[in-house]
Amino acid sequence: MTEQMDEKKGEINPEERAKEGLKSLFNEGLMIDIFQADESISLYKMIGLNAEGINKYNFGELFGALQGVLSDRLVLSLNKLFEVEKKNPSRSIPSVLTYLEKNAFILKINSKSKLISGLNELGGDGDFSENDPLPDSEFSKILVSRLRQFIPHHKGDTKLSKTLIALRESRDKRIAHNEHIESTRIAGVTWNECIELLDFAKKFTATIGFGYLSLMMQWPSGEYILSDDAERRSVALKRLFKKAGIIDEHQNI
């Protein structure tokens, strides 16, 4: 009775409550894992690019161990982004889709055009038109259904799914690290494969974030806004290498 009375007074808004729930999936899940993966790749790459100088000054063992930590962190973050909900709740991409599906009749869409363009970037084939008369609830349910068809998953056979499978296997077993630095691979997959998987997560997050919550997470160029923040530590590491004489003061990497 009290809740109904409060709702009439405008103190309880189901749509706002649903949006807050969606926002928490972003703030406490996707955005954190994307940032940590971005940062890990940036630092790992900076070490790899300077492997010759690092090994020359006998710091290979130290930075090899650091790469091991970064590799484990990257593997964990990427796996968490695509983790399918089981018994325990998660804040992954599949969890966001489940949330959108369950709240389709409550959540209003802020930008259909962003959802449509984002869907096409992620793998859609012109499923919707911005002038489509579908109500938001029906649009959301179809959007979720289409996204589920090409989101990387642990049983898929797409290139991104195969990368995810390799990363899950790396997570589930102990990763061995050599003293000398391996500069082209991370946990059994290449940098580019990890970056492609991460880019998918960034595009998904930017699409859904703006489409439902008006969260600006992507520049007009398509670059993920928080990537610059994630690279700050690697810039600092580069300065450290220069101060230590590991790389030339004027070297531009």
What general form does the structure show? elongated
- For the record, the count of structural domains works out to 1
From the N-terminal CA to the C-terminal CA, the straight-line distance is: 65 Å
Strand content: under 5%
Strand order of the largest sheet: 1-2
How many E-type strands? 2
**Unreliable stretches:** 1-7, 175-181
Q: Helical region count?
A: 11
Q: Which oligomerization state do the chains in this entry correspond to?
A: single chain
Approximately how much helix is present in the residues? 55-70%
Mean of all residue-level pLDDT scores: 84
The main sheet comes to: 2 strands, antiparallel
- Quickly give the structural class: mainly alpha
Radius of gyration: 21 Å
Commentary on this structure:
The protein has 253 residues and is mainly alpha-helical. The chain has one domain (23-243). 63% of the residues lie in helices and 2% in strands. A hairpin with a 2-residue loop joins strand 1 and strand 2 (189-190). Helix 2 runs antiparallel to helix 9 (191-213) and helix 6 (112-122) packs antiparallel against helix 9. The protein is elongated and about 65 Å long. Mean pLDDT is 84; it is low at 1-7 and 175-181.
